[in-house]
Amino acid sequence: MAVREAEPVGSLSEVREAGLDREDLLGIYRNLLVTRGIEERGHILYKQGKIPGSFYTGRGNEGAAVGVATAMGSNDVGTPLHRDMGVHVTRGVEPWRIFAQYMGREGGPTRGRDGNVHMADARLGMIAMVSHLPAMLPVAVGCALAFRIRDEKRVAVGWFGEGASARGDAHEAMNLAGVRQLPVVFICDNNQWAYSTPTHLGYAVEHLADRAAAYGFDGVVVDGTDVLAVYRESKAAIEKARNGGGPTLLELKTLRMEGHAVHDDAFYVPKELFEEWAKNDPVERFRTWLRENAELTGEEEEEISSRVKKLLNDALTQAEESPQPDPGTLLEGVYATPEDLDTPHHK
Amino acid sequence: MAEKTYLQAISDGLRQEMRRDDRVFVIGEDVGVYGGAFKVTLGFQEEFGPWRVIDSPLAETAILGAATGASMMGMRPVAEMQFADFISCGWDHLVTVAAKQRFRAGTPVPIVVRLPSGGGFSGGPFHSQNPESSFAHIPGLKCVCPATPEDAKGLLVAAIEDPNPVLFFEHKHLYRRIKADVPEERYVTPIGKARTHLEGDDVSVITWGAMVYTADEAAKQLETDGVSVEIVDLRTVMPWDKEAVLASVRKTSKVVVLHEDNRTGGFGGEIAATIAEEAFEDLDAPVKRIAAPDCPVPFSPVLEKAFIPQVEDVVKGLRELAEY
User: Most buried of A124, B11, B29, B47 (most Cβ within 10 A)?
Assistant: First the structure.
């Protein structure tokens, strides 16, 4: 079972075959802009001293994140990580809550209990990540196990990075998923750098997707800067899982275009590599594609970007109005109550 | 009521919950075809099928992580660690994900982890431990350590009902040795409420799990000395019934805290410190801890006897306190 390297997406008709109409394409473009806009503004907030702790972005990974999330069904669930802001945006998390999360405010999804992208809106089928990066893969497999036990046509999507692939959790999760042929899709955001560790010090195979063969399912390598190729391959993998075809490992190749976090200038990444991958910026690339293949007009571009600007401006204002958490509530929620189980998923 | 072993009570409680609630399923190593290393789930796969009694690969993180994920999707998983000792391989998942998810993300994790624990039969360093204090230290986890067959069933039902990750420490040395009446019907024994195993006036023993029986035998010997011993069986160490402990301390004014886990960092230290903070004026003697010494659990029967607190160790400690 050799790994497959996905072809880039060429034409509008090919995209239509994959299930996207022009409105969907404009929606993807908007989600890419919102994703990048949130992280650019977050960066400014950090420099203004408004974000405690550290700050992480997924610059370069926007297409990969938005592409996968667009392919998910509304009842599917996932465990996105810290480079996957596009997943939260695509699933419909309101940007003001993300800014509130960054600033540790009461209005953020974790109400100041956790920071940066350690968040999720469970009502939108997302499960909040932890810092121990492959730790969410067994959880995604467990979601898929529940779907399989109940014979539901739902799929779980689990994210990890090429750095996280070195840990045992990733192996245990994929092995169990393979043995039981569970409806789960594994997404490896391979951005080539685990903090300062390059891929050749992290793993010894050519592609991480090669490992899928060892677990008895398919692996596909995709250019993670091509949002449409990511969508097409994710859609195929998710629908395969939904229809009883078992797991797939998708390796989405990108370059982490900034440091590990805001304090890190990434001096260890060769300049030429940044220059080379800057030519494949996922947002620019998709904008060009839309102009050339879907007759995106200057007027439409202007309208979408001004709407995004307004959304983010309003979101920032709303987030700054969100109160600081009350220290008197510190011990709330250490233990769950039976009422806490009254969620769309726990029932 | 019929007389049941501790093991049968656990098995009955689990089967009863699986019959009444489709969301409850079992996952672990050798739990299906083999019925579990100790046969707690014997016959379960025939009754409930291979997707509710799931034989997993040998991978504790996958077992626990899958239980967490399934619980978030509405299931009520009961995961089995073949031996409590193997939970070290899944520690990260429990502590990093399961314990903190409600606090930080608002997502409850209603899972039960069954942990055959404890020594007494030459299981050696990796099949004999009592790791409850490691987990009692982690906010978000609950730790249950039943001593009687009736409590084993009632606390298992409570653990499955509980919306939190509950670690269910079932002591292997009680499995077939201890028999008592267990109600046939479903009942819930509340988590966090101690049980007075024996009423007495002169010295209190605060303990849980298999050590309840060690304390009981010691108390019988003290009775012949004319010393009346009270035994408080905590039943659960997180949450633990502080009020019941303090009430017993106020009654007797002398306390032994007894456990099978190692002394340093064992949960007895927390109990002793709480007594010192909140009942200092009521004490007529220093709080005495009786616990395993600070070494791994040894294999040889002679060494293991020296390791696990014995009846004579407790008798000695009680006499010292009685004479203080």
Answer: B11
Which residues constitute the domain of residue A111? Answer: 4-324
DSSP structural state of residue A6: P
Structural domains of chain B, ranges and CATH numbers in brackets: 2-182 (3.40.50.970), 195-323 (3.40.50.920)
Which CATH number belongs to the domain containing residue A290 in this structure?
3.40.50.970
A122 close contact with B: CB closer than 8 A: yes
Peptide bond into A138 cis (omega under 30): no
Residue A18 confidence (pLDDT) above 90: no
Q: Look up residue B257 and give its two tokens.
A: 């805290």
- Whether residue A149 is contained in a domain is answered as yes
Task: Provide the ipTM.
Answer: 0.96
Show the tokens assigned to B142: 């609950």
Residue A8, pLDDT score: 85
Quick one: B119 exposed, middle or buried, by C-beta within 10 A (0-12, 13-18, 19+)?
A: buried
Mutation to test the A interface, candidates B29, B86, B88, B104, most A Cβ within 10 Å: B104
Ramachandran sector of residue A91 (left: φ over 0; alpha: ψ -120 to 50; beta: rest): alpha
Flag residues of chain B having pLDDT under 70. Answer: none
Beta bridge partners of B167: B113, B143
Which of the 8 DSSP states describes residue B36?
-
Q: How far is CA B300 from the centre of its chain?
A: 24
H-helix segments, A72-185: 85-91, 95-102, 136-149, 168-180
Is the residue at A340 inside a domain? no
Sign of CA dihedral A239, A250, A247, B105: negative
Length of chain A: 347
| Pairing verdict, β B236-238 and B142-144 | antiparallel
Q: Which residue has the tokens 């669930």?
A: A77
Helix (H) or strand (E) holding B261: strand B255-262
| Nearest-neighbour CA in chain B from A169: distance (Å) | 6
A143 domain residue, yes or no:
yes
A308 in any annotated domain: yes
Are A207 and A221 spatial neighbours (Cβ–Cβ below 8 Å)? yes
B-chain CB neighbours of A81 within 8 Å are: none
Spatial distance between the Cα atoms of B109 and B59, rounded to a whole number of angstroms: 20
pLDDT digits (tens, 9 = 90+) for B56-73: 999 999 999 999 999 999
Dist. CA A190–CA A171, nearest whole Å: 16
CB atoms within 10 A of CB A240: 18
Structure tokens at B15: 């089967």
State yes or no: is B127 an active-site residue. yes
Place of tokens 């002169």: B202
Distance CA B320, CA B156 (A): 37
Q: DSSP assignment of A30-49, as one string?
A: HHHHHHHHHHHHHHHHHHTT
* Rounded Cα–Cα distance for residues B12 and B43 (Å): 11
Kindly report the average pLDDT of chain A as a whole number.
96
**Hey, how many other C-beta atoms are within 10 angstroms of the C-beta on A276?**
11
For chain A, what is the domain count? Answer: 1
Structural element, H or E, at residue A152: none
- CA–CA separation, A312 vs A296, rounded Å? 23
Q: Are A176 and B66 in contact (CB under 8 A)?
A: yes
Neighboring chain A residues of B57 at a CB cutoff of 8 Å? 172, 175-176, 179
